[in-house]
């Protein structure tokens, strides 16, 4: 039976109530959230929840569950926000061409609608500036074109006496004080008759023009900056024209440098988002990664590819996702179908009147932003099947494959899949097998994406301890760091750039400690190790040892002979001694090195005074 009513979450004092109404006219002023699609009341003061509408109409949930769902939806919308604004990307376009007629044709077509600065490259022309000795450089706001322009007549010196005109037998001198260099034969008659020396064919002026856009109407013949964004050729004209207007920008991707394992200044570390983004919206800078939100299509691929959680999908981030399902009493064995609103609306439209037992429908704007952490968390909460309704994307497919392989090795089936909107309309939504977990994953405080995965794997191994060693899962973002302990001096260079805390120093035992499950295999530690004793070993192992800390290297501390302060290790001391010995300088500093940096100075001055 098709339902024509929908739910409204009301606030009465300090309490919330969930009621049903039959029309929007019945929605009371106290409404804070309504089970409708967002386009049904775009200007409303309350929040629209497609998730509440679809689950109320297609699900078999009790009113108590729908009440908890309404509260979870309210919290989700209030917790997650992002910047949205209008961006004016119109700007001056420096247009360059070798042939004046090519430039003329372009200006005749677009000159009335675009802000153009046309430049001819070398060929004599009266209609446009003719540029020689050009250079093009990147600036903070766009580009700077610097060039020489030949100007034989100095307008400040010219008396406009008219003597030069009659002596030019080529009629190259024009009354607007220009010289048609394509006709001039450099005879010098005009120079000779000019009483003020206003004519000089060796006179040039240097011009600088700045603009956000560069357009070459022919193949570029001058050096162009390494950063080529906003430099266009004729075949990319449509892209340039698309930029000349006002655009709505939603900053749906949020970046946290504290968690990022890409170390731009070292040109090292993780590059997964840089390699994944189909729009080239993520760039390296001296300060780290920068997101061009105007170029960003919001596809979420970078979020799915990010192993640390430094990139988050702002409309529904990791922390909110975890809290959402922690507060939602999903029945064990539920199928969770995650799809954008337009897809949920299509399912509702085609299937209205049909009830789907034990199926929960979640509106998620961009499922391609989901990761293995989200999928494994749902499994840990007792979900038996997760269907992501979206187009295939490499990063998401890899995450689904990883999550499926983990569950398959432990329980023997693969509960996660990606379907298109047409496929899901034909598919059965029942799970292939029931989730065998006896207890749900309850006690969990979210800290980061990788620590969440660590906690989930620990929970799985406690719930389903494998009888024998399981095969290693191939993975580029999980693995070990191997260390040649005999050569490691515990210099701590590797610790400075490990933001996941997979590597840490233990001040009590003077040990380099490593937790495999926290390592994203970015390789930064390998790059910065001065002794070159570290090596990556990719692969995920479902074993307690992979989740636990282990010592990679350990040494004894060295104490200052004067004050007793610990200022290094024996291995580092031996490394310094060996290096100085090879340089023949050990004898001159031997008496100072057993002291800390403060006492070393005191020792030096006391020896001088003696």
TrEMBL record:
**Does the keyword section mention Kinase?**
no
Which keywords annotate this record? 4Fe-4S, Iron, Iron-sulfur, Metal-binding
Name the Gene Ontology molecular function terms of this record. Answer: 4 iron, 4 sulfur cluster binding; metal ion binding
Give the signal peptide as a residue range, or say none if absent: none
- Residue ranges of the 4Fe-4S ferredoxin-type domain? 149-173, 175-204, 287-316, 479-508, 510-539
Q: Does the keyword Iron apply?
A: yes
Coiled-coil boundaries: none
Report what the protein is called: Ferredoxin-type protein NapF
């Amino acid at each position: 039976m098709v339902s024509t009513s929908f739910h409204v979450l009301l606030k009465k004092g300090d309490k919330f109530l969930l009621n049903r109404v039959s029309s929007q006219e019945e929605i009371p002023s106290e409404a804070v959230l309504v089970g409708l699609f967002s386009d049904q009341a775009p200007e409303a003061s309350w929040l629209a929840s497609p998730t509440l509408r679809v689950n109320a109409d297609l699900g078999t949930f009790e009113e108590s569950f729908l009440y908890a769902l309404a509260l979870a939806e309210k919290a989700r919308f209030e917790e997650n926000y992002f910047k949205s604004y209008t961006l004016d990307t119109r700007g001056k376009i420096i247009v360059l061409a070798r042939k004046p007629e090519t430039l003329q044709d372009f200006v005749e077509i677009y000159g009335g609608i675009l802000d153009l600065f046309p430049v001819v490259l070398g060929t004599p022309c009266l209609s446009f500036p003719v540029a020689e000795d050009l250079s093009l450089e990147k600036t903070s706001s766009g580009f700077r074109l610097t060039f020489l322009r030949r100007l034989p007549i100095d307008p400040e010196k010219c008396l406009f006496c008219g003597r030069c005109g009659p002596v030019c037998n080529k009629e190259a001198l024009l009354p607007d004080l220009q010289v048609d260099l394509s006709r001039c034969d450099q005879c010098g008659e005009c120079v000779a008759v000019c009483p003020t020396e206003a004519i000089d064919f060796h006179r040039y002026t240097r011009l600088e023009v700045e603009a956000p856009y560069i357009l070459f109407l022919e193949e570029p013949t001058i050096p162009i900056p390494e950063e080529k964004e906003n430099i266009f050729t004729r075949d990319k004209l449509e892209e340039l024209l698309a930029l000349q207007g006002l655009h709505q920008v939603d900053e749906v991707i949020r970046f946290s440098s504290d968690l990022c394992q890409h170390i731009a200044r070292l040109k090292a570390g993780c590059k997964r988002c840089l390699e994944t983004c189909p729009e080239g919206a993520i760039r390296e800078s001296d300060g780290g990664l920068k997101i061009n939100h105007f170029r960003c299509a919001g596809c979420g691929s970078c979020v799915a590819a990010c192993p640390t959680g430094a990139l988050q999908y702002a409309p529904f981030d990791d922390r909110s996702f975890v809290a959402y399902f922690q507060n939602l009493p999903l029945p064990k064995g539920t199928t969770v179908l995650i799809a954008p609103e337009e897809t949920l609306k299509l399912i509702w439209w085609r299937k209205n009147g049909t009830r789907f037992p034990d199926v929960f429908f979640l509106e998620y704007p961009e499922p391609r932003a989901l990761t293995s952490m989200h999928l494994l968390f749902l499994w840990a909460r007792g979900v038996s099947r997760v269907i992501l309704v979206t187009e295939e994307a490499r990063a998401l497919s890899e995450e689904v494959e990883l999550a499926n392989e983990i569950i398959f090795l432990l329980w023997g089936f693969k509960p996660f899949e990606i379907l298109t909107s047409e496929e899901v309309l034909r598919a059965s939504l029942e799970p292939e097998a029931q989730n065998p977990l006896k207890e749900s994953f309850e006690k969990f405080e979210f800290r980061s994406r990788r620590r969440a995965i660590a906690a989930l794997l620990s929970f799985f191994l406690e719930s389903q301890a494998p009888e024998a060693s399981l095969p290693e899962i191939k993975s580029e973002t999980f693995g070990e760091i191997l260390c040649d302990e005999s050569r490691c001096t515990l210099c701590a260079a590797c610790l400075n750039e490990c933001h996941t805390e997979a590597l840490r120093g233990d001040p009590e035992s003077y040990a380099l400690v490593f937790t495999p499950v926290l390592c994203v295999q970015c390789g930064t530690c390998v790059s910065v190790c001065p002794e070159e004793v570290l090596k990556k070993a990719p692969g995920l192992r479902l074993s307690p040892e992979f989740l636990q800390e282990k010592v990679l290297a350990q040494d004894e501390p060295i104490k200052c002979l004067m004050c007793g302060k610990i200022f290094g290790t024996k291995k580092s001391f031996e490394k310094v001694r060996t290096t100085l010995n090879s340089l023949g300088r050990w004898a001159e500093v031997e008496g100072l090195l057993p002291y800390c940096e403060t006492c070393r100075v005191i020792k030096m001055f006391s020896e001088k005074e003696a």
